[in-house]
Design a protein that fits this description.
Largest sheet: 2 strands, antiparallel
Strand content: under 5%
Structural class: mainly alpha
Helix content: 55-70%
Main location: endoplasmic reticulum
Organism: Polaribacter porphyrae
Order of helices and strands: HHEHHHEHHHHH
Strand order of the largest sheet: 1-2
Distance between the termini: 23 Å
Protein name: Fatty acid hydroxylase domain-containing protein
Shape: globular
Number of helices: 10
Keywords: Endoplasmic reticulum, Fatty acid biosynthesis, Fatty acid metabolism, Lipid biosynthesis, Lipid metabolism, Membrane, Metal-binding, Oxidoreductase, Transmembrane, Transmembrane helix, Zinc
Subcellular location: Endoplasmic reticulum membrane
Length: 215
């Protein structure tokens, strides 16, 4: 098992990770409040706000794929950079029962929010667009955190969570370089990283036990 920042320094988990999606929600309430205040004070047409919001939703689905595939799975020449990028993702792959790294913490959420929305504001100079877009991204992000937690929390025998669980665990157990999507499969299909064999995934008893988190 390779060492990484999270494995070597567990105290960092208090800042970079969360125990479950409820704690993620509590941490991002100030962000959501800011978006809503800006939107409600604006005089822009409602249909435009909805349009910006939907663009935000769509953008997060793509962003989660890119981050997972590029930031977490591409190797860099810098050992320091790679050590940082591997910090929690590699720890997660090596310790599936460690619920502490299933969701992000404040020192990942807030810097990422500032960077993304700062770039969007520089491109648009429109605070209402940024807030509506950010609200869409953030709510989809919450869905992502919830789904990732549920995928590793227990075994789902039917429905969409069952499909996503097989899809994600096929990535963990069978093919590290395929099935990077966590909430939808469309981007894997677009970029040819979709492995249909996840449909035939059969988990061993030990692997099933790995899904039952004990908080």
């Amino acid at each position: 098992m390779k060492s990484n920042m999270a494995s070597e320094n567990h105290f960092l988990l208090h800042f970079f990770a969360s125990r479950n999606p409820k704690f993620v929600l509590l941490k991002i309430i100030p962000i959501l409040v800011f978006y809503c205040v800006v939107i409600f004070k604006s005089e822009i047409a409602f249909y435009k706000i909805v349009g910006y919001f939907l663009i935000g939703l769509f953008s997060w689905s793509f962003f989660e794929y890119i981050v997972h595939r590029v930031a977490y799975h591409k190797r860099t020449k810098s050992r320091g950079v790679q050590w940082f990028l591997d910090a929690f993702h590699l720890h997660h792959h090596n310790n599936l029962m460690d619920y502490r790294v299933l969701n992000a913490g404040v020192l990942l959420i807030y810097p990422l929010t500032i960077i993304i929305l700062g770039i969007v504001y520089l491109l648009t100079s429109n605070l209402v667009f940024v807030s509506s877009f950010g609200l869409g991204m953030t709510l989809y992000y919450l869905l992502y955190e919830y789904i990732h937690y549920q995928i590793h929390k227990k075994r789902h025998k039917k429905g969409y969570l069952n499909m996503l669980q097989k899809y994600h665990l096929h990535h963990h157990y069978k093919n590290w370089n395929k099935n990077f999507g966590n909430t939808i499969t469309i981007w894997d299909k677009v970029f040819n990283t979709y492995d249909v064999n996840y449909k035939h995934l059969i988990l061993t008893d030990n692997q099933v036990n790995d899904l039952i988190l004990k908080e």
